[in-house]
């Protein structure tokens, strides 16, 4: 199990790595999967827009792009997160930046374990799972 944090074109130092890694591992385990290699990469809006255009053919800003490299029950992937968009969303939704960042992180993990958000039903399930695992994180604190 290796969860690593990187910054691509910005300077961002993510704190509470050990607690977050434990939370990710516990969440994946609860979904009856095994944590493999997961990279969480913090970027700018511009950088993530480039990824969104190049790999997904989407010409819009987003908070997260997840690349799934899972093999059977072993969860592997790259999760690219725009710190700028997360900051903007935290202001828009009137939530703490770190709380919004954790929501985006678990959103990416849920994509890796197999959840999707392409329609209203899937979005509702995804939001329910996000809330569940965010509550679990509070119990780790």
Short description:
This protein is of the alpha/beta class. It has helices at about 15-30, 45-55, 85-90, 95-115, 120-140; strands at about 1-5, 35-45, 65-70, 75-80. The longest helix has 21 residues, at about 120-140.
**Total helix count?**
5
- Unreliable parts: none
Described by the principal axes of the CA atoms, the overall outline is globular
Percent helix range: 40-55%
Mean pLDDT: 95
Our measurement of the CA-to-CA distance between the termini, rounded to an integer number of angstroms, reads: 22 Å
CATH class: Alpha Beta
Order of helices and strands: EHEHEEHHH
Widest beta sheet: strand line-up = 1-2-4-3
CATH superfamily: Metalloproteases ("zincins"), catalytic domain
| CATH-defined topology | Collagenase (Catalytic Domain)
Rg on CA atoms, Å: 14 Å
Model description:
- With 141 residues, the protein is α/β, with parallel strands linked by helices.
- The protein has one domain: Metalloproteases ("zincins"), catalytic domain (Collagenase (Catalytic Domain)), CATH 3.40.390.30.
- It is 52% helix and 21% strand.
- The chain contains five helices and four strands, in the order βαβαββααα.
- α1 runs parallel beside α4, α3 crosses α4 and α4 packs across α5.
- The radius of gyration is 14 Å and the shape is globular.
Keywords:
globular, 5 helices, four-stranded mixed sheet, Collagenase (Catalytic Domain), alpha/beta, 52% helix, 4 strands, 141 residues
Write the layout of secondary structure elements.
Layout: E1 2-7, H1 17-30, E2 34-43, H2 45-56, E3 64-68, E4 74-82, H3 83-92, H4 97-113, H5 120-140
Parallel strand pairs: 1-2, 2-4
Antiparallel strand pairs: 3-4
Helix pairs in contact: 1-4, 1-5, 3-4, 4-5
């Amino acid at each position: 199990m290796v969860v690593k944090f990187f910054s691509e074109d910005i300077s961002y130092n993510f704190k509470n790595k050990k607690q977050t890694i434990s939370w990710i591992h516990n969440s994946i385990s609860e979904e009856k999967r095994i944590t493999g290699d997961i990279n969480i990469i913090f970027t700018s809006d511009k950088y993530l827009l480039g990824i969104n255009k190049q790999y997904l053919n989407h010409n819009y800003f987003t908070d997260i792009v997840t690349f799934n490299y899972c093999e059977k029950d072993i969860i592997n992937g790259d999760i690219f997160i725009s710190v700028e968009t997360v900051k903007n969303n935290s202001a828009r939704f009137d939530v703490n930046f770190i709380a919004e960042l954790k929501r985006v992180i678990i959103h990416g993990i849920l994509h890796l374990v197999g959840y999707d958000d392409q329609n209203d039903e899937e979005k509702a399930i995804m939001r329910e799972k996000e809330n569940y695992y965010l509550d679990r994180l509070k119990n780790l604190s």
